[in-house]
Amino acid sequence: MNNHLFHHDLAPVGDWTLAGLILVIWILLGWLIARLAFLVLKQWAAKTHFQFSNMFVRALPVPIYVLVIITGFMVSVKNAPFLDADVAVISHWLNVAMFVALIYLADNVLQGLIRDLEKKHQGIREAHFLFSASIHIGVWALGTMFVLDSLGISITPILASLGVGSLAVALGFQSTFTNLFSGIYLLMDKPVHLGDYIKLSTGEEGNVEKIGWRTTQIRTPANHMVILPNSKLAENLIQNFTLPTPVCAFSVEAGVDYASDLKKVEAVTVEVASAIQQRVPGADKNYQPSVSFHGFGIYSINFSVNLQAQFYGATFTMKHEFIKALHERYRQEKITMPFPVQSVELRNAPPDWGAKRPS
Question: Is residue 11 over pLDDT 60?
């Protein structure tokens, strides 16, 4: 090795000067050409409406400058007083460095693409770390395989080991990965958002407080926190009271006696409901309530009173206030709301059963 690497001590000084000048001139010219090219590309990217072009131009400078320096060394080495074997070794490692620069460029381009997508998709923005880390690992792992292959190192045993190891990890962390990918689905598909009021088919309901990688937190009306694995949430039938808008229409069931004047019942009920729409916090003041008669019951004519709240949480207070106000108004108007009466038949009872007992 010493005979090869140090033979250039006896080489003419002019050869080294020429190699150095070639390197300096190459780098200066390359830098100048790259700068001019970047200016042209930036002007072109500014005129296009394709976001990828702007992102690609932003990612170019550092990798291109590195490639200019590497190619400068490659040209300089071929004109330096090295032995052919030394030139081959140095050129080989410079090729490796060029591979690394290209990997860095690919990584920058993909990271720029993720940053541009984050501006349009909240799910990607919230999952920035996962996407960014996955791209970093994937690009550099794939690039490392190419580099090792270019160095003559067989990557087949490495791939086999990675395959077995990945299978073992996947089996060991199956539930964790299931929840992780369910979290990605929730962030990307966005069936729920932070602050939404939801009700699950399993009975849990409340406001969504946090959507994490593994779990989702729901605050119930009783101010308790339900920690739900993302896989369970993704499998559930979700009723979202906030989508497509927070405005929530609801109805209150009631019934009146068959002898009642239905026109009067409707007018009085709408009047009470309109007052509730105007005075209860959270009620939609622009909504006009209505009454819908929908059936003849066993002991009453049944109807629904339709109201509307600005958000689901206000429906509880509106129902509470409406029932109180309607009951009081019906009492004043002498409108009867019948209730079921049970008759009890006693058989084989003693003759004196039920008689008033002496005190």
Answer: no
